[in-house]
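Lab meeting notes turned into a lecture example. A postdoc, R.K., suggested we walk through two folding results consecutively so the class can see how the record format repeats. The first protein's sequence and structure tokens come next.
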Amino acid sequence: MPVTVLLVDDEPLVRAGLRAVLQAQSDIEVVGEAADGAAVIPLVRRLRPDVVAMDVRMPLMDGIEATRALLRTVDEPPKILVVTTFENDEYVYRALRAGADGFLLKRARPAEIVHAVRLVAEGESLLFPASVRRLAAEYGDGEGGGNRAARAALERARLTEREGEVLRLMARGLSNAEIAARLVVGTETVKSHVSAVLAKLGARDRTQAVIAAYESGFVTPG
């Protein structure tokens, strides 16, 4: 089954460019388009896409609020890939904190766009880990030891030593297979650890878990 994608951007040329790139792939299908975040929820309910590629800045409802609304109101929501002009942008970090799974630069090359959609759909790796580290360093609420609320939440999670090790490797952008090789365990074992980390942190996906790790000071950006 192909990865199905909904495109949300107020610029028709951007949507057309993304559609052309993605539709050229045999394993990806663009199932719909919208010009504003306000149209996302009804389209997602009707089309059930795997991934929403959503502009972070739109006139009526921006990508941040649309992400919050989507995750709050839709059962089994799709993965959300924020589309942005600037990677070191507080809007991007706010969208990731709101629940987006990753971000895509509008100037990205076609191969990078395709890779981003596939990676976010699979959910087993962190998209652009170095950029997430930079965003956490610049816009995260903590300095050095992390912010108090995030630190308390991580303490309540009571991660085991191995789960903490897995979270640190996730924060470095390693995939499940790479973590398995590093720890000399099976991939299924790593998947179990990742699932446990997400459940204990109350994180929707590994992007949210990694942000929590940075903001709590458990992992330091840099």
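The second example is placed directly after the first for contrast:
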Amino acid sequence: MASEPFAAFVDVDGYRVRYRTTGTGRPVVLLHGIGRSLEDWEPLRAALPARRLIALDLAGFGRSQPLPDLRLGALAEHVAKTLDRLGATAPAHVVGNSLGGAVAMRLAVHDPARVASLALADSAGFGREVTWLLRALDLPVLWRLLLRPDEYGARTAERSLFHDPAFATPDRIALARELARRPGAARTTRQVARALGSLSGVRADRRGNLLAAVEALDIPTLVVWGDRDRILPAAHLTHAATALPRARTHLFARTGHLPQIERAAEFAALLDEFWAD
């Protein structure tokens, strides 16, 4: 999948970060999930042509260089520094999917003045349950087999993200395989997965502390989920409503882990309404 002409790189503390930006106005920051890249936001970008969108490859993913520390706090701080380098210092609407949702929440806690609102799509951090593929990354040796960058693995992983298999296009599968073959990609994915949880699932102590801190901030928050998510189950939306009782919630029907792709137009309409309020 070829890069669009507006994809670029910026140096942040000696580490290269890939980003893509379009539009004008208040910045909207887009943060993808584990093992993914900013390409996951292309359908939503097309559905929000009037917005100033800044999509980042998180450190160690896509084509951005990894950091020595890939825990949530370090990833969030690196996002903040990247936005400073891009001149996006005004309070931003931050949209995060999966891992990106947890990074978005950590960013809000780390620097609340930077975050105008949070929109969390099938976000990590709301429940212990997670697909066995990510839990198994905690096991020695097995993680290398699970993260092999072969055609079968890329196709299987891509199809697991969608309810409608038609969204697992040849281009998306090819990109997934390409990114998985980058030096250190598998080790980075495992490192981040282990920072979030273990074989038994997402760690409750870290999850609870983060959610309590976010709720205390009283930042306008929207949480959406796909009802057929096979990575983080839709029951997590109920957990989100309990942990963040002032947040708006929405459940997309017949949708998997990436509603920004499967339900781009509907998600864009929800965001526009949310931001208008």
